[in-house]
Amino acid sequence: MVNENRSKVAVIGCGFFATNHILSWSNFKDVDLVGVCDLDEERAINASNISKGTPYFTDAELMLKEVRPDVVDIVTTAPSHYHLAKLAASLNISAIIQKPMAPSLKEATKIVDLAETTKTPMMVHENFRFQQPIRDLKNFITNDNIGQHLFCKISFRTSFDIYTNQPYLKEVDQLVLMDLGVHVLDTARFLFGEATSICCRTQKTRSDIAGEDMATMMLGFSEERTAIVECTYGSKQVPDLFPETLVSVEGTNGAITLGAGYQMFKRSGEKVETINAEPSVDDWCEKPWHVVQDSVKNTCRHWIDTVPQNLKPETSVDDNLKTLKLVEAAYQSAAKGGSLVTMDN
Ligand SMILES: NC(=O)c1ccc[n+]([C@@H]2O[C@H](COP(=O)([O-])OP(=O)(O)OC[C@H]3O[C@@H](n4cnc5c(N)ncnc54)[C@H](O)[C@@H]3O)[C@@H](O)[C@H]2O)c1
C-alpha cells in the first residue's frame, strides 16, 4: 500500500557537497530516495553506494521521467540550475536548488518567473539560517529578550583550503560574495529583515584566483538598525573557526552572542546566561562539519514540512531573490570603493 505521507526525492549532482544531501534524505524515515544522478557515472555510482543502492542515472531527464519524484534536489553548480529547474517544472516536479540560485541576478529572476508561471514550488537550499545555533539566537531576539534591536554583526572568516574540494571556485569572477556572501547576507535578512541600504568593500588576498575573497559590508535597516556583515576565505587569524559563523545582536535591553565553539552568551536586562549551543552530531555526521551537516538536514526537512502541506518554504526562490539583490548591490557598491547603495524593497 502506498503511504501518502511519504515523500519521493531524487538528487541531481553527486559531487563534493551532495553527500550531505544524500545522507540527509536517506536518513529521514518518511522519505524515499528514489534516484541519484550525475553526468559522471563514477560519482553517480558512489552516491548510490552511500545510500544503500539507490538507483543511479547519468541523464537527469531520464531519471525524472522514470522515478517521478515529488521533489528534485538540484546540487549541481550554479550555471546548470536554470536549465534543471526548467526540466523539473516541465514535469510538474517541485525543486530545491542549491545556493547560489543562479550565476547572476538576471538568471535567478528567470527561475523565479518560471516557478510563478508554472506554479511549481521551488526553494533555495540556503542552509545557514537553518543552523540550530542561529535559529536559537533568532528565537531569543524575537521573544522580547533584548528590547529594541539596534545592532547585529555576522562574521565568517577563514583561510581553510576550499579550493581543493571545489576547484571551480578559483575560476569564478565573483567569488566570496556569491559563494559565502549569500549565506551571511541571508542570515542578516533572517535576523533583521530587509535592508534599506548597503555599502561594501572587497579585497583579493591571493593572485591565483579570479574573483574577490574578502568582503566587508555595512547594512542599514529601518529605525536606524545597523549590521556589519563580513566574510572571507583569506583570513589568517587563529584559531581558524571554519565552518563556524559568529553572530551577535545588541538591543536596548540586552544582547546575545554566538561565539567560538558555539558558546552562547545571553543578556536580558540584568539576567546573564552562558549556554553551549553546539548542534547535535548525527550518526552520519562528523565534527567539525556537524554544524553544516545538521543545517543541510534541517533545510531538507524544511521542504518536507512545508511544500507537501501546501505551505510556502522560508527560502522560496522569490524570497531568496532578495538575498541575491543584496549581493548585486554589494558588488555595485564595491565597484565604487564602498559607496552607499539604496535598496529598492
Ligand atoms: N550550502 C552550502 O553550505 C554549500 C557548500 C558547498 C557547496 N555548495 C553548493 O553546492 C553546489 C554544488 O557544489 P559542489 O562543490 O558539490 O560541486 P561539484 O562540482 O563537486 O559537484 C557538482 C556535480 O554536478 C554534476 N552535474 C553538473 N551538471 C549536471 C547535470 N546536468 N546532470 C547531472 N549532474 C550534473 C557534476 O558532474 C558534478 O559532479 C554549488 O551550487 C555550491 O555552491 C553549498
Provide mean pLDDT, rounded.
Answer: 97
Distance between the termini: 49 Å
- What ions, cofactors and ligands are bound? nicotinamide-adenine-dinucleotide
What is the spatial order of strands in the main beta sheet? 14-13-12-11-7-10-9-8-15
Order of H and E elements? EHEHEHEHEHEHEHEEEEEEEHHE
Q: How would you sum up the major sheet?
A: 9 strands, mixed
The radius of gyration computed from the alpha-carbon positions, rounded to a whole number of angstroms, is 20 Å
Number of spatially distinct domains: 2
> What's the count of strands?
15
What percent of the residues sit in helical stretches (DSSP H or I)?
A: 25-40%
Structural class: alpha/beta
CATH domain topology of the largest domain: Dihydrodipicolinate Reductase, domain 2
Instruction: Quickly give the CATH architecture of the largest domain.
Output: 2-Layer Sandwich
Q: What does the overall shape look like?
A: globular
